[in-house]
Amino acid sequence: MTVSSETTMETDQPASDDTLLRLEDLKVHFPIKRGIVLDRTVGYVYAVDGVDLRIARGETYGLVGESGCGKTTLGRGLLRLVEPTGGRAVFDGTDLSTLHGEQLRRIRRRMQMIFQDPLSSLDPRQSVESILVEGMRAHGLDNDRTATSARLRELLSAVGLPVTALRKYPHEFSGGQRQRIGIARSLAVEPDLIVADEPVSALDVSVQAQVINLLEELQTEFGLTYLVIAHDLAVVRHISDRIGVMYLGSIVEETDADTLYQEPLHPYTKALLSAIPVPDPVVEDQREQILLAGDLPSPSAPPSGCRFHTRCPWRQETRCDSERPELREIAPGHRVACHWAEDIAAGKIERHAVDVELVKETEAGPGAGLGGAASVTEMLST
Amino acid sequence: MALLEVRDLSVVFGRKRQKPFTAVDGVSFSVAAGQTVGLVGESGCGKSVTSLAIMGLLPKRGVRVSGSVTFDGTELLTLSDKQLRDRRGRDLGMVFQDPLTSLNPVIPIGLQVTEVLRRHRGLDHKKAQAEATELLNKVGIPDPNRRLSEYPHQLSGGMRQRALIAIALACQPRLLIADEPTTALDVTIQAQILNLLKELVAGTDTALIMITHDLGVVAGLCDEVNVLYAGRVVERAARHELFADPRHPYTHGLLGSIPRLDSARSAKLAPITGSVADNIPWADGCAFAPRCPNALQGCVEQPPELETQDTRLLRCYNPVLPATTAAKEG
Amino acid sequence: MTPKLLQRRRERIDELADAGDAGVSLAKDALRRMRANPVAITGAIIVALFVVLAILAPFLAPKDPRTQYAELKNQLTPESIPGPMPGFLLGSDQYGYDLFSRLLVGAQQTLIVGVLATLIGVAVGCTLGGLAGAFGGWVDTALMRFTDILLSFPSILLAISVAALFAETNQWTVIIAVSMVAIPVFARLLRGAMLAQRHSDHVLAATALGVRRRTVVFRHILPNALTPVIVQATLTLATSIIDAAALSFLGLGDPDPSRAEWGLMLAESQQFIEVKPELAFLPAAAIIIVALGFTLLGESLREALDPKKRR
């Protein structure tokens, strides 16, 4: 990894002063421990393995990938809810990795999070009012009772809940309403950045759209910057300005939302796009599908070279399995981590079949293509 | 004649002293041999309960099933447990949402496949083993001989779902019911599984009932689609017709609330307001009326019936105008 | 929007507002569901009766339980023990005490032992578990190995060993011995629950919100981790009562015969079981019924507090 070239490229950009968040070679590795009395580290899960990205003030950056790709860990690592193993996260000029204790706690006010499961992310014993007030109190924003109560009303009306909600408890609401409470909680402390981790995937389709629209309205109203993490590319594309596609701990392609759909360059992005069902039979019948062979390799034993080479239908004899591709800027604002991106785009390289036998099956590795919320962190913490 | 004929199926849950809850409320549809039919709806619309009722997998206590389900002329609802078990293995196969809990965790995959083969097709050990290898191969599990001796937890989610499909297909059932088979899987794996299902039923006489909340899944797969809301079918149409021209306000709303990969990004989503908690009971009118942008006075006075409109069935007094008419008027 | 629909919607909103302007907290909701559960009601009635009887026992007892009555003693022979007679509802026991009064007072004794043993068990166990859960690391490892050792003994054997350590036994040795059995259970339980809570989304959410660590522990982790402890405490009351009775039965209890205690009554009446079976049967039944009451209450409490069962 050549971090330095990446960093200089970023700082050379004249517009870098409107950068709100910058990640530089961020890494989160979880040790795998064995042993009864004394734990021995027998290996690492490379959940996030060198991610560089930049989020401008006011934009929505979408991070998309399948389960086990490390997207959730990335979101938590940059907020230091899990400790990064290496690299830096620079928020509005402040290097978060240098902050400790009270300083870190203070800056949390400006970076908030929305969770996937709206019920489990709300304390079942707290009423909505105390859930909303808690953050304000932690940051000294709750000094005047009438001001606080006015603020609470304002928050509830911003997320579309009645004032009567204040004295109720999370279990009394529907899924969509709970997610609104979660959103109101993060808004309560007037953040600049909101990391939304799968904000709609636990909701019914008809309710998803309500929450997506709400997030968009709130962004305009409060000038928020979003990092939206999701597995659903259609949702991410709808709300994001720029999108990063993650595969096995690193970003493989990054560009603006329209370009990503129209000219995907990385083989994985192409496969991902073609795999998403479109609710239109005409499109479905016509489009060409790129079916990937096998499953996601285990993040504890990532393939050598390009992490995607074991499943890549464009894989070449050279470089792919020996040299890890770095994220290169191929067109303005379009970065791809593939040695052969230009040749693939120009049609010089043909797609070929991938022998499934070649795919190294994971032996029950953590997060190996596991469904649902089985992210690496959850696997390890249980 | 249709292979499976569901007539007026109702399922009411409710133990003693509890308020009865009608999960499925007079659902009728039929599936012909070789046909793929979709049941689409959001959580709580009764789509899964319908499939469990067809398979006879609902608990006996506290559940009342009425109506009729005939399979190849035989009434399934009145069959004895033993007869039903026989049918389930042989004629009806089912694939569930969560492959991990549907497989027995302490028995190797191979044994779970051969068990079915020996029971329903009377194969001896050797033949069953060979057939099992063949089946795993067919559903795209690499190195099937090794996999046969492995336990479910040693397989990835996608592989488990393939194994489950192999078990469901073991006896070459004439009807396969897939209940959210890809919901727990990643999109690239989902594409593999959907493709597999498509290949398995294409060109054969096997009928498939696809139960899902994802309209995208249905769009590429089903010949005919039933949209369920609050336990009733609200719209039924052929695939192309339904997606090109959703007439029921609910179907229309669902399609409008899904962000599409190929649509313009600036287009704002048109969500359905409220949630299922706003529903009114069907006895009082249309359950969807409180959330419906097209609701009329009549909608809350008398529930609409499922009626033929052009080439589709529709349960609505004031459906969305057909796209062509709307375009002319606009 | 038609007028009728509008009215419906308004009604629904009113309904929502009525349904809980105050909101239904977790505890209220659990209480509501316990009230609808016949098992819980049975348990609660047994426990309530027992507690009331135990507290009021000194006033309810028709005779002094510590007096050997001459009119009873006079009739005691190796072949017969007086049955019910005027003034003595259940007759005499083998020493000439009033059986009914002793049974009543025994309830008080049982309640004191059960409650105190459980309280000590909860207090010490939760302190250990709380420390392990809050600090983790070597504190956790050391404390948990200690509890593992305690847990590796069969519970009654542990209680007997502890009781046997004391030179002379009395009420307090019983309480301490019985509480020793409960301590490791509560320590492990609270630690496990706290660890689970520590990794839960809502704790992560509070941390992300910038809430102070101390507040997170005391407001979010601990209250939610205490739920299983409360359930376990109710169930432990039952086992403590049985354990205490067992210790008395084995002769490791309070040896003072003038003190009425169900386990001791059961033990000492063994040799008279053919003469007057009620002497053994009544205290045994009392122990079983009370233990059952607490168990029913505990189990239904567990069910009512289970978030998965909610709606």
Automatic annotation (TrEMBL), chain A:
Keywords, comma-separated and alphabetical: ATP-binding, Nucleotide-binding, Transport
Any one GO MF annotation of this record: ATP binding
Annotated InterPro entries: AAA+_ATPase, ABC_transp_ATP-bind, ABC_transporter-like_ATP-bd, ABC_transporter-like_CS, Oligopep_ABC_C, P-loop_NTPase
One Gene Ontology term from the biological process aspect of the record: peptide transport
Statement: the UniProt record of this protein carries the keyword Ribonucleoprotein: no
ABC transporter domain sequence ranges: 21-273
One Pfam family recorded for the sequence: ABC_tran
Keyword Transport: yes
Entry's family note: Belongs to the ABC transporter superfamily.
Protein name from the UniProt record: Peptide/nickel transport system ATP-binding protein
Organism this protein belongs to: Tamaricihabitans halophyticus
Lineage start: Bacteria, Bacillati, Actinomycetota, Actinomycetes, Pseudonocardiales
TrEMBL record, chain B:
Occurrences of domain ABC transporter (ranges): 6-255
Coiled-coil ranges from the UniProt annotation: none
Location of the protein in the cell: Cell membrane
UniProt keyword DNA-binding present: no
A molecular function (GO) term: ATP hydrolysis activity
Residue intervals passing through the bilayer: none
Membrane topology (UniProt): Peripheral membrane protein
Primary location: membrane
UniProtKB keywords: ATP-binding, Cell membrane, Membrane, Nucleotide-binding, Transport
Tree of life domain: Bacteria
One Gene Ontology cellular component: plasma membrane
GO biological process, one term: peptide transport
PANTHER family per UniProt: DIPEPTIDE TRANSPORT ATP-BINDING PROTEIN DPPD (PTHR43297:SF2), OLIGOPEPTIDE TRANSPORT ATP-BINDING PROTEIN APPD (PTHR43297)
Similarity annotation: Belongs to the ABC transporter superfamily.
Identification of the protein by name: Peptide/nickel transport system ATP-binding protein
Lineage: Bacteria, Bacillati, Actinomycetota, Actinomycetes, Pseudonocardiales
UniProtKB/TrEMBL annotation, chain C:
Transmembrane residue ranges: 39-61, 111-139, 146-166, 172-190, 229-252, 279-301
PROSITE patterns reported in the protein's UniProt record: ABC_TM1
Compartments where located: Cell membrane
Superkingdom, taxonomy of origin: Bacteria
CDD domains: TM_PBP2 (cd06261)
GO terms (BP aspect): transmembrane transport
Protein name (record): Peptide/nickel transport system permease protein
